Amino acid sequence: MPFVRGIAAVMIDLDGTLLDTVPDIAAAAARMLAALGLPDRTQDEIRSFIGKGIPNLVQRCMPVDAGDTRGAGLQAEALALFQEFYFEESGRRTSVYPGVIEGLARFRDLRLRLACVTNKVARFTVPLLEHMGLASSFELVVSGDTLARKKPDPLQLVHICAEFALPPAKVLLIGDSVNDVLAARAAGCPVVCVSYGYNEGGDVHDLDCDAIVGSLLEAANFV
What we know:
Blueprint: E1 9-12, E2 19-20, H1 22-36, H2 43-49, H3 54-61, H4 66-70, H5 73-89, E3 95-96, H6 100-109, E4 113-117, H7 122-131, E5 140-142, H8 155-164, E6 171-175, H9 178-187, E7 191-194, E8 211-213, H10 216-222
Parallel strand pairs: 1-4, 1-6, 4-5, 6-7, 7-8
Antiparallel strand pairs: 2-3
Helix pairs in contact: 1-5, 3-5, 6-10
């Protein structure tokens, strides 16, 4: 994997790459839908809704005709409920993917600078990283509301490269979805995808990434 030569920093996605957050997100969505008297969604459906932030996920949870029958305020009500419930549920059932702890340790041994980059807002990102024991691994955390735009826009990645004072070609992104790949390509960063993530229900092998790995440790061993 010659493209990884000369890498000086690594940016890592959160949901579907570092952590399996689906059980907690699904629990919050179920509570939200029940509170609104709307049909429940399966965990597989919720998994396919993850990737572009909480407002998008909440919107996709809504029945197609819900906005028409209950007015424009339904989305705002649903979003507020989801955020309330997810704040309570976040971290209860979330798990660290195999190879993550070892991979982060390997990156540190290689003296690579590490950033977490996610579309999840900081209110949820920082406490979750701390709760799962991962916060200390990252020099920089860029959440979905840190900047004006988020993945698939390249702004978050460009910001991290600037903060690290490194050219994009030396900053590797590890993610699990088309949002990660599009952001990396636009920013000029190499990108590796994990095989186990969400990718909004799509096949990771269809993505224009530089490589697919089975774990964060496997990715670290290439650098």
